[in-house]
Amino acid sequence: FLFPAAMSEQEERVDLPLAIRKFRQFTDPDSNAAEAVFQALTEVFKQSEATTTMQVKEELEEAAELLKTENGSTVAITSGCDLFVGHVMNVLNTDEGFSSSKRKLLDRLERFKKMTVIIRLEIANHTERFITDDSTILVHGFSRVVLAILRNAAKKNKRFKVIVTESRRDQAGVRMVKELDDMGIPTIFITDCAVAHYLAQEVDMVFVGAEMVVENGGIVNKIGTYQIAIIAHSFNKPFYVAAESYIFTRVYPLNQQDLPDMGTQAPLATDNLPASTEVWNSSSDYTPPQYIRLLFTDQGVLTPSAVSDELIRRQNFW
């Protein structure tokens, strides 16, 4: 998922649907896609003149479909939309009455907007004892939570270096390297196809974020995460996931085919390919729980098997 540097003139057009305008407004380098979705749909909910739960459901589902279509149906956006609509319905379908439930929900949503940075700091604090001096950490994709972890470790004067994968399709690794360089953290940039070569000897642990944490403790994340987890497992290197608990979801994929079809949104260098060649260029993959050592979340340090219990315990992510 790509974050625009600034809203263009087209993005500021008032004739665009409210959900699209607000999503673009809230999409910035300090937000992930799910946060932008939550904030955009919050604005839709806030400005809604609906007087019944069913009307709210219809309006939010319509706005959610617009966001999914506008942004190429990435897993993070699709999951964020479904999570938001589902939680809103859970709160509104109570015996408190529509008006009372709506006020309570809006209060929770406002608190959630203020909590996102605090959540990342909580997650970072949970990882302190796992990052030791002279560690080499491999990261894949761009994750604000992983950045918070590395920033926190650097502030504690821990000595470590980070190996960053190129993270194709969108070269998110380039952006990650720039952020780490700004923090003064020693960084090495490698191509995606070199992961096994360096994991074998150079790497002590792997940290990745997640677009979605599923019920069995596995994750959906940027394409390439699955193969890195398999390689780390084969070399007995810990594969850690850092994720906010609000992206936990009751999805239970059994394999890669159970993921939503996200199409081929990003181009490959295909100029020299025969016209008859089919290009597969998925945006995300599913990493099963057996390859994940631990998940660092705002609810604490969890084993993959504890995710299901956390979903049962939790009623709302706000």
Automatic annotation (TrEMBL):
It is found in: Cytoplasm, Cytosol. One of its GO terms (cellular component) is eukaryotic translation initiation factor 2B complex. Keywords: Cytoplasm, Initiation factor, Protein biosynthesis. InterPro entries: eIF2B_alpha/beta/delta, elF-2B_alpha_N, IF-2B-related, IF_2B-like_C, NagB/RpiA_transferase-like. SUPFAM superfamilies: NagB/RpiA/CoA transferase-like. It holds the Pfam family IF-2B. GO terms for molecular function: guanyl-nucleotide exchange factor activity; translation initiation factor activity. Its main location: cytoplasm. Component of the translation initiation factor 2B (eIF2B) complex which is a heterodecamer of two sets of five different subunits: alpha, beta, gamma, delta and epsilon. Subunits alpha, beta and delta comprise a regulatory subcomplex and subunits epsilon and gamma comprise a catalytic subcomplex. Within the complex, the hexameric regulatory complex resides at the center, with the two heterodimeric catalytic subcomplexes bound on opposite sides. Belongs to the eIF-2B alpha/beta/delta subunits family. This is Translation initiation factor eIF2B subunit alpha.
